[in-house]
Amino acid sequence: MKKYLIAIFFTLAIVSFSLNASASDQAPQLTAEEILNKHFEAAGGKQKLMSFKSRVALGTVKKEAELEANFAIASDSKRVGAVYAFQRYSWNFGYNGSDYFMRPNFPRGVNLVQSKYGDMLASGLMFNSISLYSLLLNPPEDAKFTAKGTKKVNDRPAYIVEVKRKSGPVMKLYFDTQNFMWLRTDYGRLEITKPQGAFTNEIVPHGEDDNIIDFYFETWDFRDVEGVKLPFKFKQVVTYPILQQSTVGTITGTITEYQHNVDLDPRFFH
After folding, report:
1. Is position 3 within any domain?
2. Tens-place pLDDT, residues 13-38
3. 130 CB contacts (<8 Å, ≥6 apart)?
4. Do the domain assignments include residue 22?
């Protein structure tokens, strides 16, 4: 009888430990406001983040089989512009405070993709916390933030915050449940059909006639920069014609330097 009771005791202890461990693995439920406030606090404080008048991020990007190329992302509270100096051309894109711009322009067959980039650039959510043009730092009155549970981003549990405005697509932000860094933004989905003559078999493999593109931007490798936490690695979804070997893929970036409160070259925003 004594052995039986001991066995029951150990069984209950194991079950109790398992339940407690499971509960501790689950992130506490937070509202969208609580998640964003914890993000600001972890990143250095909202007041400190808003104290910078301008920011330039410098580094390299890589796409397909090409060598790494230099890039620069410049921003202030109302604008953001980027230049990726690829081997064959420079991709210049951004938002100047009233409209988006992009050079080179995308071909007519994929102009919906360019319009999607326009939505992303104007949203104030492009480039995550790399950019000072931020919907989170300066939310408009029609912006609604809603907590939507958790999901893993590259094996890290993350809180999901959904962003809705009166017009425009619904976007989702992901914040690490442990350190509250901004890991990813989902900008929504776009379905495109390959128009006749828009691509060649050399550029687009067979079977890619119809594509569903999930646009996102991911950031990681956060470090201290002048009292705030900023990412030094990113991954970005891109499409043809930025890519030449496929219609949809990603490019990766490594930031080597941040500069704050510098005069921004007007050419970043045209």
Report:
1. no
2. 444 434 343 333 577 899 999 999 99
3. 55, 57, 73, 75, 219, 230, 231, 234, 255
4. no
pTM score, whole prediction: 0.85
What are 83-124's pLDDT values in tens digits? Answer: 999 999 999 999 999 999 999 999 887 889 999 999 999 999
174 pLDDT above the threshold of 50: yes
Q: Write the burial class of residue 90 (CB in 10 Å: 0-12 exposed, 13-18 middle, 19+ buried).
A: middle
Residue 11 pLDDT more than 80?
no
* Distance (Å, whole) CA 209 – CA 143: 36
Q: Is residue 73 part of a domain?
A: yes
Q: Which residue, 221, 247, 223, 256, is CA-closest to 235?
A: 221
Residue with tokens 């809705």: 164
Taking the alpha carbons of 10, 15, 16, 22 in that order, is the dihedral positive or negative?
positive
User: What is the domain-level CATH number for residue 143?
Assistant: 2.50.20
User: Does residue 87 fall inside a structural domain?
Assistant: yes
User: 108-123 burial, b for 16+ CB within 10 Å, e for fewer?
Assistant: ebbeebbebbbbbbbb
Domain that includes residue 212, residue range: 30-269
What is the rounded CA–CA span in Å between residue 87 and residue 196? 28
